[in-house]
């Protein structure tokens, strides 16, 4: 129970950018007390795979510990990592976490835009832009599900970044829970390969644009590149697994190709670079 409590509170702090840590320490104590009182009630949280508990108890909802979004412990300019180590918010780790969060937000905006555009046109039969409701169906089988998966994997990336492998405070159990499997990189590569089979050969530099969906994907790509640059020093120091850096590198490639697909499938040309 205490482990689940630590993980849940850390995710709240990481996503809100609030206190971070102090609340984690406080909720850890609460979790330990709850574990003593309710040893029959087993909750397990999978970091980055949805902030929900899996419980065998029928009244699990009533037994869950409630967490406040604000903790006030970050008012001194520090925050806590998953291993309870406190660092200044200007630390590279939090810079990387912030960029990871921004990447996730950008991916979410792109995905929601595409989904909502389809729903709007489907319900109102109003083709107000270059993309029609019928066209949007061509993203339902791969692009949109892929983006949803990517958002969860980016939470896994955040968990790995927030668990420095070289820190004495990072226990073996924490390292195991936050491992980032290289199979996630393989998955993205397979998606890229499938997309490229349908796309025309790339013969020029591209400027972000075409459809709004493509432009949003390009924006996510640029933010992902920044995130990769922030994470790479941590990979080189041994604090973060190499697979995390590989994933971010491949993700930016995926977002580039997905942006081309977003244009190609609805008959909109990519915006090519034109020399002055």
UniProtKB/TrEMBL annotation:
SUPFAM superfamilies: Cobalamin adenosyltransferase-like. One of its GO terms (molecular function) is ATP binding. It catalyses: cob(I)alamin-[corrinoid adenosyltransferase] + ATP = apo-[corrinoid adenosyltransferase] + adenosylcob(III)alamin + triphosphate. Residues 49-58 have a biased composition (Polar residues). The lineage of its organism: Eukaryota, Viridiplantae, Chlorophyta, Mamiellophyceae, Mamiellales. GO terms for biological process: cobalamin metabolic process. This is Corrinoid adenosyltransferase MMAB. It comes from Bathycoccus prasinos. It holds the Pfam family Cob_adeno_trans. Homotrimer. Converts cob(I)alamin to adenosylcobalamin (adenosylcob(III)alamin), a coenzyme for methylmalonyl-CoA mutase, therefore participates in the final step of the vitamin B12 conversion. Generates adenosylcobalamin (AdoCbl) and directly delivers the cofactor to MUT in a transfer that is stimulated by ATP-binding to MMAB and gated by MMAA. Residues 69-262 form the Cobalamin adenosyltransferase-like domain. Belongs to the Cob(I)alamin adenosyltransferase family. Residues 30-43 have a biased composition (Basic and acidic residues). InterPro entries: CblAdoTrfase-like (IPR016030), CblAdoTrfase-like_sf (IPR036451), PduO-typ (IPR029499). Gene3D superfamilies: Cobalamin adenosyltransferase-like (1.20.1200.10). The keyword Cytoplasm does not apply. Residues 1-58 are annotated as: Disordered. The keyword ATP-binding applies. It comes from the Eukaryota. Keywords: ATP-binding, Nucleotide-binding, Transferase.
